[in-house]
C-alpha cells in the first residue's frame, strides 16, 4: 500500500484526513520529519487556521525546503484548504511570505449583500481542467464542502483545476500542475465525492510506483 506522509505542523485536522486516506486504500503517516517526507510515496499538506501561523510553524520545523524538494522531484503532492493557500507568494490575511511554489496571492472575499463570510457549506465545483486525474469518475459539477474566508488568485490562470461561485464572486477552488494538486474545499468532509477525490489521488500514487518498479 502507498505510504502517504501527512504533514504535521499543528495546523490541520489530521485525524479525518488520515481516515479518508485509509478508506481510499493508502497508509497515512503523520510526520514532521524531513526524512519521512523523502521516504514517503506522496505527501498531503492539510491545514486549518490562519496563514501567518501556518507558514511560521512550517518554517520552525524546517519543513519548507523538504516540501519544495519533494514537489520538484515529481512526488505526488496534495494540499488541502490552508495547505493550498500557503503554497502561494503571500496572503491578504497576514504579512509572512508564503512558500512561493505557485505564483499569486491569497485574497479575501469581498463583502456583498446576501452572502456570508466565511464561505461555509456545500457548493458546486466548475471543473476548469476536466481531464485532471483528481476529477475521475465525478459528475461534471460535483458538490463539495467548503469553510474559508480567503481564496487563492494564481498569477497563471492555467493552473486552475476548478472554480467555485459564492455570491457574485467566482474564485479558484483547486489547482493542478503536473504532480502538484491542491484544493480549497475539504475532501475529508465531502462525503462520497471527497472519498472519490482522495481515491483518485491514491490511484495516481500507485500508478507512479508501478511505473518506477
Automatic annotation (TrEMBL):
InterPro entries: Class_I_gatase-like, GATASE, Imidazole-glycPsynth_HisH. It catalyses: L-glutamine + H2O = L-glutamate + NH4(+); 5-[(5-phospho-1-deoxy-D-ribulos-1-ylimino)methylamino]-1-(5-phospho-beta-D-ribosyl)imidazole-4-carboxamide + L-glutamine = D-erythro-1-(imidazol-4-yl)glycerol 3-phosphate + 5-amino-1-(5-phospho-beta-D-ribosyl)imidazole-4-carboxamide + L-glutamate + H(+). It comes from the Bacteria. GO terms for cellular component: cytoplasm. Gene3D superfamilies: 3.40.50.880. CDD domains: GATase1_IGP_Synthase. Residues 6-204 form the Glutamine amidotransferase domain. Keywords: Amino-acid biosynthesis, Cytoplasm, Glutamine amidotransferase, Histidine biosynthesis, Hydrolase, Lyase. Its main location: cytoplasm. GO terms for biological process: L-histidine biosynthetic process. The active site is at residues 81, 186, 188. Its EC number is 4.3.2.10, 3.5.1.2. HAMAP family: HisH (MF_00278). Heterodimer of HisH and HisF. This is Imidazole glycerol phosphate synthase subunit HisH. The lineage of its organism: Bacteria, Bacillati, Cyanobacteriota, Cyanophyceae, Nostocales. The gene is hisH.
Amino acid at each position: 500500500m502507498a505510504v502517504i506522509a501527512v504533514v504535521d505542523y499543528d495546523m490541520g485536522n489530521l485525524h479525518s484526513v488520515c481516515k479518508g486516506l485509509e478508506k481510499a486504500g493508502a497508509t497515512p503517516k503523520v510526520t514532521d520529519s524531513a526524512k519521512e517526507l523523502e521516504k514517503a510515496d506522496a505527501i498531503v499538506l492539510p491545514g486549518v487556521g490562519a496563514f501567518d501561523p501556518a507558514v511560521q510553524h512550517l518554517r520552525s520545523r524546517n519543513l519548507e525546503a523538504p516540501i519544495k524538494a519533494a514537489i520538484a522531484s515529481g512526488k505526488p503532492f496534495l494540499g488541502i484548504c490552508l495547505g493550498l493557500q500557503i503554497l502561494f507568494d503571500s496572503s491578504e490575511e497576514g504579512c509572512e511570505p508564503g512558500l512561493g511554489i505557485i505564483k499569486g496571492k491569497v485574497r479575501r472575499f469581498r463583502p456583498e449583500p446576501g452572502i456570508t463570510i466565511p464561505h461555509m457549506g456545500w457548493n458546486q465545483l466548475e471543473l476548469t481542467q476536466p481531464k485532471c486525474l483528481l476529477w475521475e469518475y465525478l459528475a461534471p459539477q460535483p458538490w463539495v464542502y467548503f469553510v474559508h474566508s480567503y481564496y487563492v488568485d494564481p498569477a497563471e490562470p492555467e493552473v486552475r483545476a476548478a472554480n467555485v461561485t459564492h455570491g457574485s464572486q467566482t474564485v479558484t477552488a483547486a489547482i493542478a500542475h503536473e504532480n502538484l494538486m491542491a484544493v480549497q474545499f475539504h475532501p475529508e468532509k465531502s462525503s462520497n465525492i471527497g472519498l472519490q477525490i482522495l481515491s483518485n489521488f491514491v490511484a495516481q500514487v500507485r500508478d507512479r510506483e508501478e511505473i518506477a518498479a
